[in-house]
Amino acid sequence: MSRIWERLAGEGGSIMIEVLVGTVLLALTTAAVLDGLDGAQKTGRMNKDRSTAATLAQQDLERLRSLPPTLLVNLTQTRAVTLGPVTYTVVSRAEAVRDASGLVSCTTDETDSEYLRLSSTVHAPASVDRPVTATSLLTPPVGALGDDTGTVAVKLTDRDGEPLPGVTVDLQGATSYSNTTNDVGCAVFAFVEAGNWTAEVDGDLVTWNGDTPATSQVAVAAGKTSLTQIELDDPASLRATFVTPSGAPTQWRSISVTNAKLPNGYKPFAVGAASASKDAEGLFPFRDGYGVFAGDCEANNPALWDSDYFETSGYGFVALDPGDLLEPVQVVVPQLTLKLKRTGSTSDAIQVYVRQVDTAYDCDSVIYNSGLIPLSPAVAEATLTIPLPFGRYQVCGATRTSSSWRSRLTATSGTYQHPNLRTATAATLSLDTNGATSGNSCTQVPS
């Protein structure tokens, strides 16, 4: 008996191992069976949903065919249909068709729409990525939509010329229509009354000029298809930080951006109080980027004085991608240094003002006024360093005698002009406090 008990004791763990292995095999077998049953149930539910979706699509087509043709023109409709515990999404569309070339798309053509293609697309929850679509053609009765009608095609592309599908476009005119762009970025409005219409794009996409919503005018001719194209993209923004030619921080009141595709070639931003930086928002992200300069007049563009400035200076150029937020760029504000000299013996307050005189660009305004600068007989000189955008300027000095300002410039001709303020520029301005000066062209100092 002792030998038998010793033999049994040596096999004490094998039974437990056999039980565990059997349990694992049973669990795997059960999981496989349940997974198969679940897959069969999913397939059955999917097939049932698709069958129901096909029925709903056919019913929706019949509904569309029963509508008056005037209600079908440019129709896009989305609605939910609930059957028991399942909710289906039904998308109904009516698209223009030509007899010769199929669907009207993004072209200008001498032919017009002749038919309407009705389509009903039903999305089932169990197969949302595999919708069921049913289509049919409808020929409107002669005169049902009027004899004086044409077709409008609105094509939307991004900055790379790629189509923008799924964007809502509204057409405003004698009445209003709404449609969404197809896979080639085209929204088609068929049987539209001849005349002038406005296409408007919903959403936050911006045009070359940063406009949103984007609009485009289109003239509709009877019996023809008129195409209008709009380039749009997600807006970007930049933050310009002002520096002197030596790289030291400075301030100015505004910035402008320039690109050849802008309607006016440039666009001013952030006109207001002087600060160390200014932002420009709502910018179209041109592939070739922007030049950025201080000032709000076209004459402040340094490329007018130095054609390759943005390529060689290392300042004022920024490339933007769609959606960029406050992309940094450094902008140079040139400096003009003036040395004021009192030539008379009478103590008086002196004032300097600077007028931009680029009249060819409609830039004629005072952009700097120093205020009162006291110069006594003991202090005959003072130095001013004035930040100025690129441009051409008239520098004037004045003294106050009695209660009136008089322009008295003695050491220069009256107009100090510099075509390119890329580097620090020094000028000497002598002001006589004792009597009028003849031959100067400065205008009365503004109050």
Residue share in β-strands: 35-45%
Radius of gyration: 38 Å
The dominant shape is flat
The total of helices stands at 4
Q: Low-confidence stretches at least 5 residues in length (pLDDT < 50)?
A: 402-424, 433-441
**Major sheet attributes:** 5 strands, antiparallel
Tell me the number of strands. 27
Tell me, rounded to a whole number, the average pLDDT: 78
Amount of helix: 10-25%
Coarse structural class: alpha+beta
Q: How far is it from the N-terminal to the C-terminal residue, by CA?
A: 128 Å
Summarize the structure.
This protein is an alpha+beta fold.
Describe the structure.
The chain is of the alpha+beta class. It has four helices and 27 strands. The N and C termini lie far apart (128 Å). Residues 402-424 and 433-441 have low confidence and may be disordered.
List the helices and strands and how they pair.
Layout lengths: L1 H9 L3 H53 L2 H4 L3 E8 L2 E13 L3 E2 L11 E9 L8 E7 L10 E9 L10 E5 L3 E5 L5 E8 L1 E7 L12 E7 L4 E7 L4 E8 L11 E4 L7 E4 L7 E7 L6 E5 L14 H4 L4 E2 L8 E6 L2 E8 L5 E11 L4 E7 L3 E3 L5 E7 L5 E9 L2 E4 L17 E7 L16
Parallel strand pairs: 6-12, 13-19, 20-27
Antiparallel strand pairs: 1-2, 2-3, 2-4, 4-5, 6-9, 7-8, 7-10, 10-11, 13-16, 14-15, 14-17, 17-18, 20-24, 21-22, 21-23, 21-25, 25-26
